[in-house]
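User: structure tokens for SulP family inorganic anion transporter, please.
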Amino acid sequence: MIQTAPAKNVKQSSAVDSAPTANYLKTISKDAPAGLVVFLVALPLCLGISLASGAPLLSGVITGIVGGVLVSWLSGSQLSVSGPAAGLTVIVLTAINTLGSFQALLAATVIAGLIQLALGFLRAGIIGMYFPSSVIKGMLAAIGLILILKQIPHFLGADTDYFEDMDFFQFNGQNTFSAIGTAFKAISLGSTLIGLVSIGILLAWESKPMQRLTAIRKVPAALLVVLISIGMNVALSSASPALRINPDHLVKLPVVSSLMGLIGELTFPDWSALTKPITYGVAFTIAIVASLESLLSVEAVDKLDPHKRHTAPNRELKAQGVGNIVAALVGGLPMTAVIVRSSANINAGAQTKMSAFIHGLLLLMSILFLAPFLNLIPLSALAAVLLMVGFKLTKPALYRTQWKLGWEQFMPFIVTVVAILFTDLLKGVCVGLAVGVFFILKANLESAFFFHREPVREHNTIHLKLSEHVSFLNKASIITTLDRFKAGTHVILDGSDSVSIDYDVLEAIENFRQTADERGINLELRAIPQVAVLGH
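Assistant: Done. Predicted tokens:
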């Protein structure tokens, strides 16, 4: 029998467990700086995705505002950040051309939001739990690699499209690697110098000697990078005009003088598009792709969450549905939960959804008050921030850990990485999932899959007995069952009859073990090995 100990990696803080406003205020000292960091990362992405989608520049920022101010509170995730997604750029660009106008796309997006709402009420969100851990980690690693590769041209000041797309084959006829080669032939010395200084600051800020200083930990490195980069560009312009950064490599935010001026810039849906059958086909495509990306993103965020909180997938679908409806009604792009901004949020030390909310408010304020100042930020400095985010997502330790887990875990992981790198997010995940299912079916060809629960009525005890062979296909049922337990329950999780328990299930059990004490649950493990859950 293995008796659990109090979770070492979970901070004993009521401020991250529940929703009362007082609890959110307790973590504001960490959430506010994190919200600022996410804002700095999200702003250029919102603008770049708008450009890549062939939509008005303001539309991406509007979606970011709605995702932060509204969806953050509707979602059950504490750390996820919603906004325009690079993975939807091709779909949006094609839809605008097919429907004939951006206003027609807005009408289709409203319908897509209604479809997502229906999926949430039909409890279709559980599909996200059936994605193997190796595939989700592969998705995170691939996004990290893509971030690094895509940011190199901007880091060098040699690409005018800040975040053209996440695909390997780009709209301009180049691919990821040829774009990097072209960038090295057109290096901007000023941008590169600022990028290198920015990377140096970010690395120094995370060093152990610096982190021992309390004052240092309270200052977000990304904020310092932005301020220094602006100062450097001003200084370079005066000292050596040849090193001055080209205006194409600075942030470009529309300057709006007032709230009424902002309202005047909004675009509204063309409801006449609802008479065309093709509109509903576009709406269905947006709804399905956006839902899958959101479910995969919140699943990945739950794995990165230091507190291992679990997001209700059906609630997430409803939140994304409402978000898409509201964003489209005021001229915003389709939205999803976005792993890039969510990862930046976690790495910045966010504790609750207050950070995403603050990022949304800052996006709104930036349009109304800060556009002239923000337009001074060099893109190479923001590229440096994203390079660091990318590295944290695809650390070499992640690859070593997956390799040590064996072929059943490594192959779906590495196939997912390669497939996403050379295609796109959705296709890559589907390929990785197919490989994961192949290994599971191969290993359990003659085995039955079931999860047997045997209640014991004495002393509020529940005895859960695992079957002989437990695969990731049982993961959703196990997580759902464990989430139902209330405080004061004595849970006996028994694997004494199990010949094999899949790593995904062990990881889910370990996450439950780490949070059992916080939830007031007395957990007893029998014949179930503990696993190390890799963090980023």
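User: Anything notable?

Assistant: DSSP finds 22 helices and nine strands in the chain.
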